[in-house]
Design a protein that fits this description.
It contains 10 helices and 16 strands. By secondary structure, the protein is an alpha/beta fold. It folds into 2 domains: 274 residues, Zn peptidases (Aminopeptidase); 111 residues, Alpha-Beta Plaits, CATH 3.30.70.360. It has an 8-stranded mixed beta sheet, with helices on both faces. A 4-stranded antiparallel beta sheet has the order 10-12-8-13. A two-stranded antiparallel sheet has the order 7-14. Helix 1 runs antiparallel to helix 4, helix 4 packs across helix 10 and helix 6 runs antiparallel to helix 7. The longest helix has 20 residues. The two termini are 29 Å apart. One of its GO terms (molecular function) is metal ion binding.
């Protein structure tokens, strides 16, 4: 396949995936499509299925003879429960499901990388092995509280990988710019649910009830003050209340109110502090004769980019596009389940600018999400270059 055809295929892959999105743990057709694109390529072996990867969906494509060094490249393949509002000719074919986080682009980039790596292998120019993980279920946990990355790690199909790299599309950053930072770059993700209980009663006689809505109004200011009053201003921390559920009538005081939200932190210390302060502060509800039940779920850990692997990935991008402007800044308070992999295997994730300047401004997880498809070539080549640089010198010293 020539380079012109390869570039054309990148766009075709992305648009097919965009038209046919599947939610977390349901990426059956996406998995089949990926396998179909790569199964006959030279030097490629394919693993999939629950026995090999821990889930029915997802694909691990290995390029090479199996010899060391073994480098990992990762793309996420799932979509979101969002109704698309882009009016693109290739917009989602499924009502209420959309690739609104760029995973269609990530998957296309990694497919492109598989093709380039296979060509290098065929020419005898691949000095090692690359494991390309098309990972399912990044966006959502299952009923066990686990995401796709955790299942992939448990099956140990990637345990021999020495360094792992991933890219993420950034629709707010211009094409030709990128973000990559060593250390913590994305947040710990914790969720909470508080059920505040009273006795309920008639709306005309509130003095006869213990009103959980009133108790909620008292506790909400405490929630919103927690990050700034329990964690240092130099240590990022956010608490957001995202759901309030209670009441069924205009004249009935309910017996309970449910509050749900999320806590985001960078450090382990801030994570522990915010959790403990939330638990302690809720006891004030008892002073007003109410009761409560608190559930906290600790989700993805903070994304930690290894110093040396960050240098490798940044150098790879600079070699592919010397004019690209790289910002050494955190990526924000979002979560990313690639962090589970980076806790076990040193590596790094980079955010690639792909703002579609001809359309309205958008962001991740929005129904208007879109990106400049020229980023596909840049990202695919950067992944391959990062793998080759790591093979050449183990990632310890990189000439830029």
């Amino acid at each position: 396949m020539g380079m012109d055809e390869w570039k054309k295929r990148l766009v075709e892959w992305r648009r097919h995936l965009h038209q046919n999105p599947e939610l977390s743990f349901e990426e059956v057709e996406t998995t089949s499509y990926i396998i179909e694109q790569v199964k006959s390529l030279p030097g490629v072996t394919v693993q999939s299925g629950k026995d090999q990867l821990g889930l029915d969906t997802g694909v691990l494509v290995t390029v090479g003879s199996g010899s060391s060094p073994i480098i990992g490249l990762r793309a996420d393949i799932d979509a979101l429960p969002i109704q698309e509002k882009t009016d693109l000719v290739y917009q989602s074919s499924y009502k209420g499901i959309m690739h609104a986080c760029g995973h269609d682009g990530h998957t296309a980039m990694l497919l492109g990388a598989v093709y380039l790596l296979s060509s290098l292998f065929e020419q005898g120019q691949l000095p090692g092995t690359v494991k390309c993980l098309f990972q399912p279920a990044e966006e959502t946990e299952d009923h066990y509280g686990k995401t796709g990355a955790q299942y992939m790690l448990e099956k140990e199909a990637i345990k021999d990988v020495e360094a792992f790299y991933a890219l993420h599309i950034d629709p707010e950053l211009p094409l030709g710019e990128a973000k990559i930072k060593p250390g913590i770059a994305m947040a710990n993700v914790d969720t909470f649910e508080v059920v505040i209980s009273g006795t309920g009663g008639h709306g005309a006689y509130p003095e006869q009830s213990i009103d959980p809505i009133w108790l909620t109004s008292i506790i909400l200011p405490f929630f919103y003050s927690l990050p700034s009053r329990s964690v240092s201003a130099t240590d990022p921390a956010v608490l957001s209340v995202c759901q309030l559920l209670g009441g069924t009538s205009t004249n009935v005081i309910p017996s309970e109110v449910t509050i749900r939200g999320t806590m985001r932190t960078y450090s382990g210390e801030a994570r522990k502090k915010l959790t403990n302060e939330l638990r302690d502060g809720l006891t004030s509800i008892k002073a007003y004769k109410g009761t409560y039940e608190l559930k906290i779920h600790h989700g993805e850990p903070a994304l930690f980019n290894d110093q040396k692997k960050t240098e490798v990935l940044a150098s790879a991008l600079s070699l592919v596009d010397p004019t690209c402007k790289i910002h050494s800044v955190p990526y924000g308070m979002g979560g990313e389940d690639f962090s589970h992999i980076l806790r076990e295997i040193p590596g790094a994730m980079m955010f690639l600018g792909a703002c579609e300047s001809t359309r309205e401004k958008t962001s991740l997880h929005q129904p208007t999400f879109c990106f400049d498809e020229r980023v596909l070539e840049l990202g695919s080549k950067t992944l391959v270059k990062a793998a080759l640089l790591s093979m050449k010198r183990g990632g310890d010293q990189i000439d830029t």
